[in-house]
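Two proteins were folded this term; both appear here.
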Amino acid sequence: MIAVLGKLLDVLGFLRFVLRRWAEDRCHQIAGSLTFTTLLALAPMLAVVVSLLSRAPFFEDVMVQIKVFLLLNLVPEIAYRIITVYMEQFAENAGRLTTLGVAFLFVTAIALMLTVDRSINAIWRVRSSRPMWISILAYVVLLSIGPMLIGVSVSITT
């Protein structure tokens, strides 16, 4: 009985600690900010990915494979609308981006990734984060090589 009571007190103490840290770190505000930033970052990242992929010779094959994947894994009505209307428009618009537009979206995507990185570091109370140039270099590599890896992955798996 005493062991069970001790475990219960440990659990309650841990919950009190978590709730106190949650309030101190303003986690509800950071969670909302991260949600908004992540959703905001998706558009430029997808535009950069599609723009870079559209310049590749295998782009049409990859788009067909992505369409098949979406049709098989989403609700048919939603998937059909996404594929026939929105995906075609997005790919067409992203393919018409100029070099300056791609560069601007690239910088925007990196800035949003840095914001997410800083927020996560604040939540985990990271005392010394990595140097800014290393973070920027990592995100540039991710945005540059990521589309190619996505294209290879989709073509291998479908």
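Next, the second protein.
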Amino acid sequence: MENPLRGIALILGSTFLFSLSDATAKYLTGSLPVIEIAWIRYLVFVFFALGLVIASGPGRFRVRRPGLQVIRGLGLVASALAFIYALRYLPLANASAIGFVSPLLTTMLAVPMLGEVVGVRRWIASVIGLLGVLVVVRPGTGAFHPAAILVVLSSLTSALASVLTRMMARIDTSATTILWSACTGTVVLSAALPFEFLLPTPGELALLLVLGTVASAGQYLMVLAYRHAAVSVLAPFGYSQLIWATTLGFLVFAAIPDAWTFVGAAIIVASGIYTAHRERLARRRVLRA
């Protein structure tokens, strides 16, 4: 049963936890390899997911669409790797602003994957949102950094995972989806780990464990949120991450975004909110039909 208010509260909590994990990951990239950071994060993720599944019952290990679960897991690990690599070079708020293109990409992917009909207005809004990304990135100027491309790639794979999450919401339980995503990411990262590994200090290990715990909790809240509300309802509230990212970026790294970053972010957010509004109207028409 859908409960939009609960879904909104869950997605707000999820965005805060993701921003906190991003800030921790950015801090750790100064001394540890990205693969290692992601591997510890996913290792904690596995234990977290196992606890949820065991608490739900042994039958939760089985899934109806294993192929979709694996693809979703690959999308999430690719998104995490690309974003953490980008954080090594980009300010937290800038990376988060560019990442806001993900809901727009989700709308585009929902057409072929969910069979949704997107009108001209929503396509125009999506194009305007992409222009907002260009304002933040500013290619061809001294402000451009190639790492911004990694954030766009991260957003694309994250959008794929979001659509798949919605597709499987009524097929498999949240605990099952979490477990399969965790195991898929851990297998992929374990294969790459021998090529990039440094023994962490006790302090770094503690931060890695915090990162894994916070990111896992954020992922779980996100899955729960999509069980209670549609993507179009939750999308605007995902933009609260800019507030968390800007605040943490200032407190931890003393970084203040420039005016163009805020202008570009405003364009992306406005287009995203308008797109979500149009999707909500379209969904109501379908339900009334």
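The chain has one domain: 4-288. Residues 4-288 form one domain. These notes refer to the second protein only.
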